[in-house]
Give the backbone structure.
Amino acid sequence: MAQSTLHFSFGMLVGSAYMLPHLWRKWKQDSPLAKTIGAWIIISSALGLYATLPSILRRILGSGEWITSWWVNVFLFYPLIERLDLPSIALGELCTALIFVAQYAIILLAIFRCIKKVNSEI
């Protein structure tokens, strides 16, 4: 389970790295952000789940020999992360928590931006 949090956080990190340039562009253009922030949260969470799929399958199937195969790298470098033997409980939970905090902070900033925009129009 501890390794799963590390894979989940890596998937969320990849999803965030993919979506943050889109969010930044919308922010700079002063466009509405709700759809972009929603897509960011969905994509980062979906990639987090996608990265943990081999862990889930290994728990269901019981055999873990196929986990080291080269083709499992399509699950966001699952075998590579397994071989690194990182302190997964602390690192995985910390990274996941930081990504959630970043998402929450950006949502709050977008709300404040919207309130400021509405107040300036009044």
